[in-house]
Amino acid sequence: MRTIDLFISRVCIARCIIAAMWTRRRFIFKVFVLTISLLICLAIFLSKFVFPVPKLSDTEISRYQERNLTPNVDSKGTPILLWWSSIYSNIVDDVKTFGTVQCRVTNNRTLRNNPDSKVFIFYGSHFEPYDLPLPRHKNHLWALIHEESPKNVYILNHENTITLFNFTSTFQRHSNYPITTQWLKCPDWLWETTFMVSLEEKNRLRNIEGLAPILYVHSDCHTPSDRDSFVAMLQKYIKIDSYGVCLNNKKLPESLRFRGSMVAMESDEFLKFVGRYKFSIAIENAVCEDYITEKLWRPLRVGSVPIVFGSPSVRDFLPNNHSAILVQDFRSVAELAQYVEYLDTHDEKYAMYLRFKKRKIKNNFLQDILRKRDWQASKDCKTFRTKHNSFIYGFEEFVCKEMHEFERYMNQTGPRFEKKIASLLHYNCPEPKRFDKLGRYTVRDREWLREWTDARYEAVVMWNLYSNNRTVQPDVFVQMVKSEKEKYARNIHKLKI
Ligand SMILES: *[C@@H]1O[C@H](CO)[C@@H](O)[C@H](O)[C@H]1NC(C)=O
Ligand SMILES: *[C@@H]1O[C@H](CO)[C@@H](O)[C@H](O)[C@H]1NC(C)=O
Ligand SMILES: *[C@@H]1O[C@H](CO)[C@@H](O)[C@H](O)[C@H]1NC(C)=O
Ligand SMILES: *[C@@H]1O[C@H](CO)[C@@H](O)[C@H](O)[C@H]1NC(C)=O
Ligand SMILES: *[C@@H]1O[C@H](CO)[C@@H](O)[C@H](O)[C@H]1NC(C)=O
Fold first, then answer.
1. 421-433, pLDDT tens digit by residue?
2. Residue 133 Cα, ligand 5 centroid: separation in angstroms?
3. Phi first, then psi: what are they for 495, rounded to 5°?
4. Most informative mutation of 164, 469, 470, 471 for ligand 5 (most atoms within 8 A of CB)
5. Nearest ligand, CA 159
6. Distance CA 284, CA 234 (A)
7. Quick check: 32 pLDDT over 80?
8. Above 70 in pLDDT, residue 258?
9. pTM tops 0.85, yes or no
């Protein structure tokens, strides 16, 4: 980004000089043109340098990224930010400075009744509805971070649960600290060409080596998005090389076998492997608004055109309006296959899908998000320098600052603090479905639907416990959910009679 900025400012200066020399008219006109040009240059300069990306010195950056893991006992009075269901696997107890404010960040649960404990943070994947930090003092702020797949944590998708939280950090753009682009670890991946294979070579691989046009590599074959059924249908019309456990028809090279970890899938070798394919299946495991993962970003990174299904509004996050094939744009799987085949045999049309790689990223919404995000998920990113090397620390800062604002308001030393309560918009996973015979995601799926609706009973029981300041053992909770469900079934039955 800095090189672009420099370039822009140079162009600016050049334009000003040219403007001044070019004008051979009256002096006043000359001054007028010069002033306007200078003002425009100044505006561009300010917008690029001053406003969106705060420049930090090296010491500031290292201070933000520093982790002091020695338990801190002399921190009385420092507000505590307590990870209740922790995202950290080790013990953390740490006074962190975020600009002008400080918080003691810890996951030591024995501090729950400490008067300094002001914020409780919950990690979605470890959320235990039967074991909440109760009673909740009226000034206790609760925060939720959930970066993993929403599948299996459907309880968060219910009003009773999500409204417990004052702040969230989820894949949803409406969350307080959204991490929709978390899997686009470096923004420069969008225009990176390291792993791209020329179209000529792709055609050779297709014709001589017998590669299929489409790549599929998955090992989670049973998902609420019904991914495998769709790919199986598509496979009837067009060849797909499937290397994962799901619908496997080809062997991965030995060096790329996963061995239960994702590491191999981030290796350069795997990226090169994907880059050889013209198209890649990019279907998420759950269909939720704004739930977007590496399944989309990886093919975009290596220049394999993604065939996308997942967030219904995924278009908002694509580099430009012609960089992916969206399943939802086709009336049937046959039509989609026909289109892919057409692109496979029409080089010019295919190449249009990769034009964004030449820095033709037209999506201002996406650019704005990437420019403003204050975390980065990989140390190797070239373009942007950010305060935090993980959105987890970024969220800690966000929540710590909000809490200080709230405290100042309560102490009557700060401005009004508007109540903040999360809503269903912060999660937004509609009921899971299945594909019909034509390949449209419209059929109610009884199995996943059961998990989805059962979470409603969990949410009701959780709410009753919460209102009564009660915590219970997990097995008791399971029993309570069961009887809640039976009660509901009985009532429905009565209504029918
Ligand atoms: C947690 O905090 C308590 C004091 O509240 C302390 O005695 C205990 O050692 C701490 N636990 C760990 C693992 O640091
Ligand atoms: C895509 O964007 C270009 C310019 O950015 C515009 O001219 C074109 O109409 C858009 N196409 C679609 C299908 O929206
Ligand atoms: C609020 O008041 C308490 C007690 O007077 C004080 O300890 C605390 O630092 C104050 N907090 C803020 C954010 O001003
Ligand atoms: C935090 O959330 C709780 C639960 O929804 C709510 O009662 C409380 O008023 C909220 N606090 C603030 C400061 O918004
Ligand atoms: C739960 O605890 C809160 C805070 O101590 C208290 O105000 C409330 O009355 C309690 N509720 C019940 C049902 O005991």
1. 999 999 888 889 9
2. 12
3. -60, -35
4. 469
5. 4
6. 16
7. no
8. no
9. no
Each residue's pLDDT tens digit, 471-492: 999 999 999 999 999 999 888 7
Sign of CA dihedral 143, 148, 151, 153: negative
Length of the chain: 497
Digit-coded pLDDT (tens) for 58-84: 444 444 444 444 445 567 789 999 999
Residue indicated by tokens 């969206």: 326
Helix H or strand E encompassing 453? helix 446-467
Question: Domain residue spans in the chain?
Answer: 1-51, 187-372, 445-496
For residues 318-331, average pLDDT? 96
Ligand nearest to the CA of 136: 5
Task: Specify the amino acid at residue 50.
Answer: V
Give the tokens for residue 172: 């949803």
- For residues 307 and 278, what is the distance between their CA atoms, to the nearest angstrom? 10
Residue 366: CB atoms within 10 A of its CB come to: 20
Q: Which residues are 308's β-sheet partners?
A: 282, 326
- First CA to last CA distance, the chain: 68
Topology at the third CATH level for domain 187-372: Rossmann fold (3.40.50)
Centroid of ligand 2 to alpha carbon of 368 (angstroms): 19
